[in-house]
Amino acid sequence: NKGFVYRLELSGNWGIIVHKKILQVVLMSLYVDKIRVIAVLCFLFVISSCTNTALQKEQSEIYLNKGISYIGLQQYNSALKDLLQAERQYSDDPKIHYYLGMVYHQKGIKEKAVAEFQRAISLQEDYSEAHNYLGTLYSEDGLWDKAISEFDKAVANEVYDTPSVPLYNAGWAYYSKKDYKNALAKYREALNRQPMTALQPQIEKNIGLIYFDQSKYFEAIQHLKKSVELNSYLYDAQLFLGESYLKTKDKANAKKAFQAVIKLSPQSTFGKKAKEYLQSIK
């Protein structure tokens, strides 16, 4: 306070000394009080921020769960509304962006779907589900190498519960590239990592296709038979099995396989092709 300083200065040198000492004490007292006030305010701010963040996370979780429920009901517009609200409450949850990517994909907005999966991965690098889903989007566009990279990242997470899924997808990507060696390696790894996977019938069918494409028909028959034994409704596997039997001159078993295709799906492309094969068998 300037008035306080000037009054002390009128007393001469001693007054100035007293003034300086008093001023130092006063300023120190004010400084300490200021520090205390700032510390208290900072503490209150931190507590308030933590409380607000916790509340936002809680609200975000509610909207997220509602969005997931709508996805299960295939009500994607309603799901999108709730997921966007969840993002507004707390945007750093990778699960929100994963499910947003899923919804955008279902709505046919692939560019936004890709961006959301990439965002989820940026928040959680080992998010295997996001890597796998992103890989499937790349596969849809024939971007096989980018897809395989994402599938490999999904499998790299040692605690991922379903490694057979990205391994299966990687196998199909390699098969589509006609890289049969790596395709077989991925399918076999999928069966080794998850022997009881629900994908086993499909994996056996695809291994059969690999051998069929390489004119190794007896090996193809072995795996295609295994495929239809595991799932008798795979009429496409039945057709390839019939074709493999024809290649090995086994008309009797070929006929049985084609009849199975017609019984399962008479109006499909596979069913119509099976009818043509049956007509050609004498």
Topology:
Elements: H1 2-9, H2 13-72, H3 76-89, H4 94-106, H5 110-123, H6 128-140, H7 144-156, H8 164-176, H9 180-193, H10 200-213, H11 217-230, H12 235-247, H13 251-264, H14 269-280
Summarize the structure.
This protein has helices spanning 2-9, 13-72, 76-89, 94-106, 110-123, 128-140, 144-156, 164-176, 180-193, 200-213, 217-230, 235-247, 251-264, 269-280. The chain is built from 14 helices and no strands.
What report would you give on this structure?
With 282 residues, this protein is mainly alpha-helical. Helix content is 81%, strand content 0%. Helix 2 runs antiparallel to helix 3, helix 6 runs antiparallel to helix 7 and helix 8 runs antiparallel to helix 9. It starts with a helix and ends with a helix.
DSSP summary, beta strand count: 0
Calculate the terminal CA-CA distance, rounded to whole Å: 115 Å
In this structure, how is the largest beta sheet organized?
Answer: none
Shape: elongated
Helicity level: over 70%
Strand share of the residues?
Answer: under 5%
Total of helices: 14
Low-pLDDT stretches are: 1-20
Kindly state the mean pLDDT as a whole number? 87
Which value, in Å, is the CA radius of gyration? 34 Å
The helix-strand sequence is: HHHHHHHHHHHHHH
What structural class results from the helix and strand content? Answer: mainly alpha
